What does this fold into?
Amino acid sequence: MFKNPTYHLMIMAVLTVTASAQTRICTYNVLNFPGSTGPERIPHFQTVLNEIQPDLLVCQEMLDNSGAQQFFEGVLDTSVFDRAGWVTQGLSEYMLYYKQDLFELVDIHTILTDLRNWEIYELSYLGGGARPNLFIATSHLKASQGADNEYRRLIECEALLDWLVINPVAGNNLLLCGDFNFYYSNEPGYQALLADSQFVDPIDTPGYWHDSSIYAAVHTQSPRVTQFGGGATGGMDDRFDFALVTPQLIDGADWEYVAGSYTSFGNDGQHFNQAINNPPNQIVPQDVADALHDATDHLPVYLDITYVEASPLQIALTPVNPPVQIPASGGNLIFDLFVENVSLSPQDYDAWLEIAYESGSPSTVVMRAFTNYQPGWTIDRPGMWYPISSTYAAGDYTFTGKVGEHPSYAWDQDGFPFVKLGGDFAADFVPFPVHGAPNPFEAAFDRGIMIPETPEVLVYPNPFNPTTTISFNLAVKQHIDLDIYDVSGRRVAELVEGWRDAGSHAVTFDGSNLASGIYLYRMVAGHLSTTGKLVLMK
It folds into this structure.
């Protein structure tokens, strides 16, 4: 993909495979390229970029269009990469190179300042699936120390921010990449960019960066201590090159910054005020350190982004009266469940509940498969319950609801912890489904709302001696009749008769005065009824 010496071909192949799920964005000040030394610097840029393997490369200090083309043809593989057009308005010294199978350049937005432009490159993704456009803004802010220069950098930053107020970029997936020449984090320009969380510095390293060994690991200039070919000397002692992101790139949806990927390439933190190729360099081979030294007076900075597919289904599983503790004798997890198809198309999916013990693997205890589940349809089940048996081991558990493709891929999930009390901790215990437990996903559709097909009743324990608890859940307020019968059809107990509100209810049945044997409960809720078996064992 890059023109490069043959001994890097194996590295290229490996990196292409392992980084394919992410997009690497690199910013690089190329020191007045081509200048008088452009041809002799091309092999050094090849070596550096073959190690980084960027998908998008934005350059500063590109002198002119012919230099941008020389870099394109000499450093990059033109069958893999494409380049932006040259901006002739204002003062521009920038160029974007991008992989043509992944991105298409939609537009270049130019913001004029009293010095150099801001260029914002708008890109659409071609790699599959509908994704929001990506925006990469670059600039080379005023150089040098002093209040006047800090003020000019502030004015340049404000020009960008003012433009963004009038022209908010679609989706706000915007990265700021360039040579910003900030000496410390309290500089007015840097603070203006971060104000009100407009932009975020992914490495969040505030302080006085200039000539401070404390910040050696984030410095990007200068990889040289001797003067040749122009540019700065003095060794590694400044953080001038940045990649900032908007909050939308760290919100967990669509385009996302990959945490920990921000890299001042070649900086091992051990070369403060030294040349980057002073042996040994702890993180890049010597030939790469030499190339960084000889190519330009800045280190490249890169970060990775990925794309997080938004789940078409959302699930919420909320405990009632947390924190949840189940007694040693067993009891019910009481929870509210909500599922919704938030997409614009019907979905085929699985919904399931899992229980995990301590740090062990989860066990599926309830599941249902759905087909043709329409947009806007919901499952709204307040006051649901799941029984935890007395034989469950004591310890810490998690109860999780998931939607997706069972069991391997959850599109969305939610859950909560609970504790089973008692003294019988068992490291090898595996949670198991409890027979007769209600399935909160088993329901019928009615105008997009899920309602029970039959009254849901749970008897626990069953068999029992002499008492058991009969629990039931109501979607709406209803008139309830709950009675117990023997096998001859004779009613032996009347437990509930009257109106009950929506939610979870429980009643105790005491069989102390009855003989051992099989009994039946019958519950009538409105026009629905259900019958089940009870086993009294004395």
Notes: Residues 102 and 127 are 5 Å apart (CA to CA). The longest helix spans residues 147-166. The longest strand covers residues 409-420. The chain has three domains: 6-299, 310-451, 454-538.
